[in-house]
Batch of 2 targets.
Target 1
Amino acid sequence: MIPKRIVIFTGGRLGPWALDFLTPDDLLIGADAGALFLVEHGLKPHIALGDFDSVTPAQLAYIRENSGETHDYDPIDKDYTDTELAWRLALSKKPQQIVMLGALGTRFDHSLANVHLLRMAQQQGIAASIVDEHNCIQLTTDQTKLFNSSYTYVSLLPLSEIVTGITLTGFQYPLQEASLEIGQSLGISNKLLLEDGQITIKQGMLLVIQSRD
């Protein structure tokens, strides 16, 4: 059975807020400490995976006891981070949507690498986002509709060298057929004026970041 939505919990910033994003039909994947977070909050990951170098042997035993499946990886002999392993597994199941929680944290290298994972989902036509208490990050190559929410700001940052044909409707600062080059901050801190807004681009990869302080 193809899951409608997969939610990945990984080892960055997590808290009680993350539990509010769950629905009963979600397929849950816990990566390393993300799996521990799930079981400690009374939730059973369908799949727990990683090298589990962020948990103690006792915690790993607890994860095994409370997960549907556990996939172990050698901490040395692996090509991907635990988060990317979880992401690739989620993609292989061809869901309609993937949401990743705990992908942002104090390690900027990991956070940035996790944002780059959105490109793989976009290439397969799978809606994907990275969410934490202050941010919701998506990637678009055509058009995206946003709705007014508790995230106050909307920022646009190119993931490709240049993004062309950017048109914004329903925003405080509209754009018409604009271009953004990587390294520019022109797209930072816009706001929706209405209940929803539309972002359309003609070419390139554009990160859409909804955020709040």
Target 2
Amino acid sequence: MTHRRPLLLALALACALPALARSPVPPAAPQIPAQVSNVAWAGDMDQFAAADRVNPPPRGGIEFIGSSSIRMWDTLASDFPGQKVFNRGFGGSEVRDSTWYAGRIVTPYAPCKVFFYAGDNDLNSGRSPAQVRDDVVAFVQRVHRDLPKTTVEVISIKPSPSRAQLLPAVVEANGLIQQALATLPNTGYTDIYTPMLGADGQPRAALFREDMLHMTPDGYAIWREALAPKVVCK
């Protein structure tokens, strides 16, 4: 009898193993999609939706979207009088955030043009110039998936004094983005990096606030002059 017990136990385990193999595997924990760098912007999206219910932007207008340099452009309407411009910037965001939320804050408005600024936060968080280029292309493709006739105008990454260590990467990223956009339909690129430099080739501190990251009205004046010929629906 004592010799049978190990044999019976082995047979029981052998029968149980196939059943265990057929048992469903517990689902993996949900992951944040790779194209999202920060899900904290959901609150900003809710605020945009609430504002849209009260005063929706005009369909077919001109949208400015991107990070804090766009969000803080509070003179947008007066800088481009007579144009149907509206602002959907959310501060601190990276390129991938605008791509992820494009279905909520681009597609519904069907803008004739989208002016897009982002990239310096991305480089500061560790993304390479090539990755930023790819992220910008992905944003353009996301907009054109739903709105193939909408023109996407990309604004170059600015030279912020507080991020002077990133300037070589900024220059590289800007060059890669400009090259990539040249091969894509209904896109444009505007260089605001160069006119924000002084005679010594360094960022002009007078164009920036005390944090040396966000711009003064003089900084926005340079952007306005560079973009004005393009801020029109054609």
